[in-house]
C-alpha cells in the first residue's frame, strides 16, 4: 500500500552523509529540472520492498512541468521512480557491483501525463502503473530498453480510454546520472492505442515513437500521454502514417519474431493411416510434446509476440536490445533470441517432409505477408506457436543459422515443430499470390493457396475449425 506525502527527503539535502547516495543522485537530476519544486508530492511505499512489502519502488516523485510553449509542448505532470536503481548500496535490495556498471537494474521509470484543466494536484494512478512495471522487472529480471513495448490490454487509468498499452523511450529531459553504485538512465513510459502497439510490434517501437513525436495530440516532442486522446496517429493522418510504417517494414524489416496463433500443419507425404502421421501430432487427443529445449527456444522467440486471445497481467517483454541498435545484417540465427542452442532431442529424430499443408485462422493468416516481407526478406525467421496445442511452425530464410530445415530439405519436423525454409525467389512469388491477405477487410473463408511445384499448400480457415479440431 502506498501513501502520498510531501517529499521529506528533499528537506534533508543539506545532510548529505545521512542521505542515501543513490537517492541523492536522482534527486539532484530532478532539482536541475525543477529547482523551484524542492518538496514535490511523493507516493511512498508504506512497507518498503526490502522489509517484505509488495511494491519495489520506494518512492515516486510527482512534478508539475510547464512544458515548453516555444515548442508547443503542453503543461503536464512528470513522474519519476526511485527503486529500480540501487539507492542505498548496502545490498538490501540490489547487489552492489561497483560504480562502473549499471546501478541496480540500471534505470528508473518516468511518465509524462497531460494536465487537465483545473487540476491542482497530480493523479496518483500512474504510481501504481509504475509499481506494476517494477514488479515485473523484479520478478522476471528482464530489464527494459528504449523502444520496448508493453501489452497491457486495459486502459492505463482504469477508465474507458483508448490508451491501453505502453512504449518505452529515453526521457527527453532527464540525463543519465553517475552514482557511487553505478549509472542510472531514465526510461519514459508512453501510453499508446492498440493500433499503435500493433504497428510497433510489426515494425519497431522507435519508428512509431518518432511518428508520435510529430503529432501534437499523440504526445509531441516530449511524448506526453493524453488519456483523453480518442484518435490514433493513423486516424489523424491515415495515408501518410501507414505509408511510413509500411515503408519502414519494407526497408528495415519487422521486429515481430513470432505470434501465438491458431494453426496446424499436416504432412501430406504420409498416408493418413500411418501412425507417425503429423496430424496425430498436431491435433490428436494426446499430442506428442515438444522437447524442453524446443519449448524454451519457441518461448524465447515469442517473447515479444502478440498474445492472441489471452490477457496476462503483464505479458512478457523482450529483454534484448532492438535490432536497430545492432549492425544491420541479412543474416539471422535461431539462437539469437535464446540462450539455449538448438540441439535436437536425442529421442526425437528430425524428419524431412516432402509435402506440407499449413492451416491458419484469419487473424494468423493476415500476418503471412508481414512474415514474408518484414522477416524472411531481411534474413530473419518467424514463428507461429499454436494456442490450442503444442504445435509450432517456423518460417526461416536461407540466411538463418541453426535451422534444421535446409535448401535441400526445406520442410523438416522436430516432433510437432515444423520448420519451412523459403528462398528469396519463392518468398517473392508467395507475396504476389497472397496479396489479398494484406487487405484489412474480412475475406470470405475458406481460402486456399497452393504451389504444386513446391509441394506446399496453405489454407486460411474459420476459427471454428481450430476450436473443434476433432469434429
Structural class by helix and strand composition: alpha+beta
As for the number of domains, it is 2
Q: Give the number of DSSP strands.
A: 21
Extract low-pLDDT stretches.
Answer: 9-17, 273-288, 304-330, 335-347
Pfam family, one: SUFU_C
Organism: Sparus aurata
Region (Disordered): 311-340
Domain Suppressor of fused C-terminal: 243-460
Explained architecture:
This is Suppressor of fused homolog. With 471 residues, this protein is an alpha+beta fold. The chain has two domains: 232 residues, no CATH class; 202 residues, Gyrase A, domain 2 (2-Layer Sandwich), CATH 3.30.1360.230. The chain is built from twelve helices and 21 strands. The strands form four sheets. Strands 1, 2, 3, 4, 5, 6, 7, 8 and 9 form a nine-stranded mixed β-sheet that branches. A hairpin with a 4-residue loop joins strand 20 and strand 21. Helix 3 packs across helix 4. The radius of gyration is 25 Å and the shape is elongated. The chain starts with a strand and ends with a helix. About 14% of the residues have low confidence.
Short description:
The chain has 471 residues and is α+β, with helices and mostly antiparallel strands. The chain has helices at residues 21-33, 125-140, 194-202, 205-213, 233-236, 238-252, 278-282, 292-301, 362-365, 368-375, 424-433, 463-467; strands spanning 2-6, 41-45, 59-65, 76-82, 102-114, 149-150, 165-170, 177-179, 182-192, 258-261, 263-267, 332-333, 350-352, 356-361, 381-386, 392-397, 400-401, 411-414, 417-422, 447-451, 456-461. It is elongated.
Amino acid at each position: 500500500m502506498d501513501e502520498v506525502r510531501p517529499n521529506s527527503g528533499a528537506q534533508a539535502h543539506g545532510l548529505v552523509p545521512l542521505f542515501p547516495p543513490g537517492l541523492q543522485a536522482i534527486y539532484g537530476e530532478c532539482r536541475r529540472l525543477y529547482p523551484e519544486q524542492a518538496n514535490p508530492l511523493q507516493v511512498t511505499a508504506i512497507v518498503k520492498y526490502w522489509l517484505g512489502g509488495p511494491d519495489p519502488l520506494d518512492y515516486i516523485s510527482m512534478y508539475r512541468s510547464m512544458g515548453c510553449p516555444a515548442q508547443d509542448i503542453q503543461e503536464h505532470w512528470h513522474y519519476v521512480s526511485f527503486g529500480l536503481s540501487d539507492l542505498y548500496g548496502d545490498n538490501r535490495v540490489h547487489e552492489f557491483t561497483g560504480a562502473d556498471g549499471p546501478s541496480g537494474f540500471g534505470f528508473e521509470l518516468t511518465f509524462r501525463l497531460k494536465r487537465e484543466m483545473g487540476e491542482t494536484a497530480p493523479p496518483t494512478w500512474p504510481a501504481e502503473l509504475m509499481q506494476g512495471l517494477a514488479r515485473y522487472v523484479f520478478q522476471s529480471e528482464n530489464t527494459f530498453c528504449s523502444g520496448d513495448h508493453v501489452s497491457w490490454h486495459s486502459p492505463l487509468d482504469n477508465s474507458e480510454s483508448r490508451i491501453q498499452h505502453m512504449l518505452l523511450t529515453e526521457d527527453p529531459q532527464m540525463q543519465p546520472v553517475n552514482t557511487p553504485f553505478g549509472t542510472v538512465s531514465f526510461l519514459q513510459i508512453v501510453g499508446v492505442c492498440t493500433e499503435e502497439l500493433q504497428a510497433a510490434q510489426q515494425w519497431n517501437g522507435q519508428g512509431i515513437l518518432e511518428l508520435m513525436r510529430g503529432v501534437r495530440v499523440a504526445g509531441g516532442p516530449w511524448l506526453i500521454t493524453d488519456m483523453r486522446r480518442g484518435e490514433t496517429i493513423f486516424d489523424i493522418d491515415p495515408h501518410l502514417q501507414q505509408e511510413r510504417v509500411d515503408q519502414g517494414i519494407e526497408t528495415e524489416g519487422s521486429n515481430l519474431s513470432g505470434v501465438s496463433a491458431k494453426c496446424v500443419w499436416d504432412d501430406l507425404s504420409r498416408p493418413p493411416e500411418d501412425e507417425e502421421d503429423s496430424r496425430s501430432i498436431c491435433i490428436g487427443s494426446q499430442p506428442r510434446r515438444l522437447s524442453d529445449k524446443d519449448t524454451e527456444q519457441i518461448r524465447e522467440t515469442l517473447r515479444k509476440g502478440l498474445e492472441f486471445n489471452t490477457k496476462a497481467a503483464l505479458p512478457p517483454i523482450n529483454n534484448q536490445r532492438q535490432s536497430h541498435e545492432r549492425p544491420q545484417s541479412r543474416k539471422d540465427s535461431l539462437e539469437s533470441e535464446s540462450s539455449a542452442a538448438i540441439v535436437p532431442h536425442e529421442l526425437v529424430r528430425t524428419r524431412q517432409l516432402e509435402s506440407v499443408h499449413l492451416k491458419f485462422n484469419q487473424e494468423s493468416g493476415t500476418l503471412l505477408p508481414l512474415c514474408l516481407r518484414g522477416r524472411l526478406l531481411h534474413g530473419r525467421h518467424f514463428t507461429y506457436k499454436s494456442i490450442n496445442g503444442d504445435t509450432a511452425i517456423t518460417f526461416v530464410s536461407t540466411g538463418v543459422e541453426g535451422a534444421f530445415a535446409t535448401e535441400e530439405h526445406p520442410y523438416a519436423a522436430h516432433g510437432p515443430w515444423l520448420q519451412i525454409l523459403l528462398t528469396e525467389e519463392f518468398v517473392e512469388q508467395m507475396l504476389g499470390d497472397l496479396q489479398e491477405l494484406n487487405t484489412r477487410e474480412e475475406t470470405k473463408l475458406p481460402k486456399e493457396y497452393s504451389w504444386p511445384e513446391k509441394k506446399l499448400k496453405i489454407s486460411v480457415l474459420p476459427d471454428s475449425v481450430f476450436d473443434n479440431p476433432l469434429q
